[in-house]
Write a structure and sequence with these properties.
The chain has helices at residues 11-23, 38-44, 61-80, 99-111, 140-149, 168-180, 199-212, 224-235, and strands spanning 2-6, 26-30, 47-50, 86-91, 120-125, 127-129, 162-167, 186-187, 195-198, 248-251, 254-261, 267-273, 278-283, 289-295, 297-304, 310-316, 322-324, 329-335, 341-347, 359-360. Helix 5 links the parallel strand 6 (127-129) and strand 7. Helix content is 28%, strand content 29%. By secondary structure, it is α/β, with parallel strands linked by helices. The protein has two domains: 2-235, Rossmann fold, CATH 3.40.50.720; 248-360, Jelly Rolls. It has a six-stranded parallel β-sheet with strand order 2-1-3-4-5-8, sandwiched between helices. A six-stranded antiparallel β-sheet has the order 10-11-12-19-14-17, with no helix packed on it. It is elongated and about 90 Å long.
Length: 366
């Protein structure tokens, strides 16, 4: 599919163009420099996604030229081409009485008659955030992420101000969904999920994510708004902040390196072990660990603290398997190879030196 993407050099446009290319579609870019070619591009396109517009022009007249007038010209070009499925990124402010909202509403009105010729979807979007958004321009989220990623204080004017957000990946999903299965006539799709929050809450989430990162911390970032904010924050990191050092504790046995710590899902680490040596020799009351050998071969030895029962488990890097440590069983690790052993470790809790829950105990007492 050849898709004309107006505003292709903008925040949403760049994300959508990449998604289209991933699918094997051909995005036809349109920027201000392409203004003389608009009509020709419409005739080449199988569908149109209209993202171009202005939300911070130098003067109020810019709203009319970049929003209402451009939409009118696009409508004429689409009608002259006999109609094309068209999706328009309008704004929830189109329902408000301000210059920006009025220009978006006028753009909707200019495009609406095209529904007689082909499917037309008018998306009234709230604040959109995500990778490649411009700080101090596209959204407060982009500004906060830029500041936090660069170690700067966040500029918060009104923490209690309400904020309705949609993530750019979700916007692209809905736009692609329309292109794949356009509804006949005029439709008003709603992008979901929408996150109704506040400026202060979003700023606190972003600031917290940035502050714990150098200390190995990672919060709940696997779903919903925190997932999207975390991705956006990372996308604003300058290259010299892509990496950071982690603690490494070494002795004659090898090294123990901590990598990731979470508030409620434990921590990730790894250890190395020299040939012929043994690590461990302790037990836990509640703490549990998962071991994964990623280089070499190891024997994990266990002894029940009450019954004395012994269990040995062997694990090799070329035959991956997880070995759990069991509360109430002393355990240690024997390097079975002639080279350095490397073992990845997950523990269900972050190590607390004040309450380590690690009691020395030999597996094979003398």
């Amino acid at each position: 599919m050849r898709v004309l993407v107006t505003g292709s050099d903008g925040f949403i446009g760049r994300n959508l163009a990449l998604r289209l290319a991933e699918r094997g579609d051909t995005p036809l870019p349109f920027t201000r420099a392409d203004a003389p070619r608009l009509e020709a591009l419409v005739t080449q396109a199988d569908a149109v996604v209209h993202l171009a517009g202005a939300n911070r022009p130098p003067s109020a007249e810019g709203f009319e030229a970049d929003n209402a007038a451009l939409a009118g010209r696009l409508a004429q070009a689409v009608r002259a081409a006999g109609g094309r499925p068209l999706a328009f990124a309008s704004s929830t402010q189109a329902a408000l009485d301000n210059p920006y909202g009025a220009s978006k509403r006028a753009a909707e009105e200019a495009l609406a008659p095209l529904a007689e010729l082909a499917p037309l979807a008018l998306f009234r979007l709230p604040n959109v955030f995500g990778k490649w958004a411009r700080p101090f321009y596209n959204s407060a989220v982009a500004t906060f992420c830029h500041q936090a990623a660069n170690g700067l204080p966040l500029s918060i004017n009104d923490p209690g101000a309400p904020l309705s957000l949609v993530y750019v990946d979700d916007v692209c999903d809905h736009l692609l969904g329309f292109l794949d299965a356009p509804s006949p006539g005029l439709s008003w799709p709603v992008v979901s999920p929408t996150y109704d929050t506040s400026v202060g809450e979003v700023a606190a989430l972003i600031d917290g994510m940035a502050r714990v990162r150098p200390g190995l911390g990672v919060g709940a970032t696997g779903a919903g708004l925190p997932r999207a904010l975390y991705a956006t924050l990372l996308s604003h990191l300058p290259p010299d902040r892509f990496s950071y050092a982690v603690p490494s504790h070494g002795d004659v046995r090898g090294r123990f390196v901590e990598a990731v710590k979470t508030p409620d899902a434990g921590q990730m680490s790894y250890f190395t072990q020299s040939p012929g040596l043994i690590r461990g020799g302790h037990y836990h009351h509640s703490k549990s660990e998962k071991f994964l050998v990623v280089r070499g071969a190891a024997r994990f030895r266990f002894r029940h603290l009450l019954t004395g029962e012994r269990v040995d488990v062997e694990a090799r890097a070329d035959q991956p398997r997880i070995v759990d440590t069991i509360p109430g069983w002393a355990h240690d690790v024997v390097n079975l190879g002639n080279d350095e052993l490397v073992v990845l470790v997950w523990a269900n809790e972050v190590f607390d030196r004040a309450r380590p829950d690690t009691v020395p105990a030999a597996v094979d007492p003398a």
